[in-house]
């Protein structure tokens, strides 16, 4: 499970950088997305979101096997 969490964070970080470099998203929106994620991780919603993402990853894993 930890591997997925780290991979998701890296993937989302890369996507934010790509969107920022392509001028698809402005720096202020990038900062807002990062802050939103940071504060969301501290709420009680973090556990259900993590469970949902883990279930999606497991489903994708089973499909690709």
Distance between the termini: 18 Å
Radius of gyration: 14 Å
Number of helices: 3
Dominant shape: flat
Total domain modules: 1
Structural class: mainly alpha
Write down the overall mean pLDDT.
80
Proportion in β-strands: under 5%
Q: What helical percentage do the residues reach?
A: over 70%
The residue ranges in which pLDDT falls below 50 over 5 or more consecutive positions are: none
Give the H and E element order.
HHH
Number of strand segments: 0
- Sheet with the most strands? none
Written description of the protein model:
The protein is mainly α and 65 residues long. It has one domain (2-64). It has 3 helices and no strands. It has helices spanning 2-21, 27-40, 46-64. The longest helix has 20 residues, at 2-21. The chain starts with a helix and ends with a helix. 0% of the residues are buried.
Which descriptors apply to this entry?
3 helices, 82% helix, mainly alpha, single chain, 65 residues, flat
Which helices and strands occur, and which strands form pairs?
Layout (H helix, E strand, L loop, with lengths): L1 H20 L5 H14 L5 H19 L1
Short overview:
This protein is mainly alpha-helical and 65 residues long. The chain has helices spanning 2-21, 27-40, 46-64.
């Amino acid at each position: 499970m930890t591997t997925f969490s780290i991979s998701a964070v890296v993937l989302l970080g890369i996507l934010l950088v790509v969107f920022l470099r392509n001028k698809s998203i402005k720096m202020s929106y990038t900062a807002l997305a990062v802050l939103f994620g940071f504060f969301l991780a501290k709420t009680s919603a973090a556990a259900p979101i993590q469970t949902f993402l883990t279930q999606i990853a497991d489903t994708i894993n089973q499909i690709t096997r």
